[in-house]
């Protein structure tokens, strides 16, 4: 046994212990913290957006139940909730319809079915299909308008 090259002197390699999964490396802590912060910011923004659109949900609910004569009134209330009173309150007639078209990025109120909302507001009679089309244009405006 004095021969150092004798194969009986060989031993298995001593392997280091496996790397533990816990605690994670500092980089993973940074990634987790950034992910939690991003989730908090996004959820706060989502809640704020949901609350900010409460007037839209209420207007859509009212448009489903109101008679055609009240469509313009609901649109005016909705506009007053979204824009300053000075910009909206005095609008009537063609200026009101142009405002709806401009803010809704459409022509439904000056050239389309929405032009009947003023006739309906003052008790004018139009056919039921036109009244339904005016209601649909009003709903589309409530959903799409941008402040």
The percent range for helix content is: 55-70%
- Which H/E pattern describes the elements? HHHHHHH
How many helices? The count is 7
Report the structural category.
mainly alpha
Low-confidence stretches: none
- The 3D shape can be described as rod-shaped
The radius of gyration is 33 Å
Give the N-to-C terminal Cα separation: 93 Å
The description of the largest β-sheet is: none
Integer average pLDDT? 93
Report the portion of residues in β strands: under 5%
Give the tally of β-strands.
0
Question: How would you describe this structure to a colleague?
Answer:
- With 147 residues, this protein is mostly helical.
- 61% of the residues lie in helices and 0% in strands.
- The protein has 7 helices and no strands.
- It has helices at residues 26-52, 54-65, 71-82, 85-88, 93-104, 117-121, 128-144.
- The longest helix is centred in the N-terminal third of the chain and has 27 residues, at 26-52.
- It is rod-shaped.
- The relative contact order is 0.10.
Can I get a quick summary?
This protein has 147 residues and is mainly alpha-helical.
What does the secondary structure layout of this molecule look like, with pairings?
Blueprint: H1 26-52, H2 54-65, H3 71-82, H4 85-88, H5 93-104, H6 117-121, H7 128-144
Helix pairs in contact: 2-3, 2-7, 3-7, 5-7
Describe this protein with a few key phrases:
61% helix, mainly alpha, 147 residues
